[in-house]
């Protein structure tokens, strides 16, 4: 899914599966989820890219007045979401966004990717949230050594051109520009 930053976009989608509702007395032993791709090894007897999500059980102790109670919660760790890359977001206006500018597991991230992601909301920082911390070097170091060298070359070429033009103007008594 990653090729740069990811933007989460609230679309008001209804993720309910009302036509497929099954009332259960207990949570299922697992939920099978089919991914577009995954690095998880193929499990025997399951389709390719299908992974089981096993419910998590957590026990908490609560003090209610003078009474100590123990509560056990069983929950499948699933969250409905919609995401796309910064490349896909170009040219779009996104009202509210949750942006992940952490270095992706594959590929690289540059200030260009970050700019595209952060500039999608017309209201700016009021409607943008960062998903997690990120490496500040992404914004404090030059995005490309090749571009830095090319910028220096173009500045020198511009200065040389101005100098050359002024010499020609002086030789022919043309006022400097």
Helical percentage: 10-25%
Main sheet: strands, sense, barrel: 4 strands, mixed
What is the topology, as strand order, of the major beta sheet?
A: 6-1-7-8
Order of helices and strands: EEEEEEHEHEHH
Low-confidence stretches: 1-17
User: How far apart, in Å, are the first and last alpha carbons?
Assistant: 53 Å
On the 0-100 scale, what is the average pLDDT?
Answer: 80
Global morphology: elongated
Strand content: 15-25%
Number of helices: 4
Alpha-beta classification: alpha+beta
Rounded radius of gyration (Å) = 28 Å
How many strands appear in the DSSP assignment? 8
Protein described:
With 177 residues, the chain is of the alpha+beta class. The strands form three sheets. It has a four-stranded mixed beta sheet with strand order 6-1-7-8. Strands 2-3 form a two-stranded antiparallel ribbon. The chain is elongated, with a radius of gyration of 28 Å.
Write the layout of secondary structure elements.
Layout: E1 6-9, E2 31-34, E3 50-53, E4 56-64, E5 67-75, E6 83-85, H1 86-89, E7 97-100, H2 111-118, E8 128-130, H3 137-140, H4 145-171
């Amino acid at each position: 899914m990653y090729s740069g930053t990811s933007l989460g976009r609230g679309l008001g989608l209804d993720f309910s599966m009302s036509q497929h509702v099954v009332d259960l007395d207990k949570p299922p032993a697992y939920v099978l989820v089919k991914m577009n791709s995954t690095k998880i090894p193929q499990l025997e007897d399951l389709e390719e890219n299908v992974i089981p999500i096993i419910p998590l059980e957590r026990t908490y102790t609560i003090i209610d007045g003078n009474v100590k109670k123990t509560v056990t919660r069983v929950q499948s760790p699933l969250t409905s979401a919609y995401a796309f890359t910064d490349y896909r977001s170009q040219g779009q206006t996104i009202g509210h966004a949750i942006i992940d500018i952490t270095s992706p597991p594959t590929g690289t991230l540059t200030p260009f990717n970050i700019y595209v992601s952060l500039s999608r909301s017309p209201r700016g920082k009021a409607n943008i949230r960062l998903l997690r911390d990120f490496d500040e070097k992404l914004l404090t170091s030059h995005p490309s050594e090749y571009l830095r060298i090319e910028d220096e070359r173009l500045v020198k070429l511009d200065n040389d051109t101005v100098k050359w033009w002024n010499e020609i103007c002086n030789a022919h008594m043309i006022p400097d520009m």
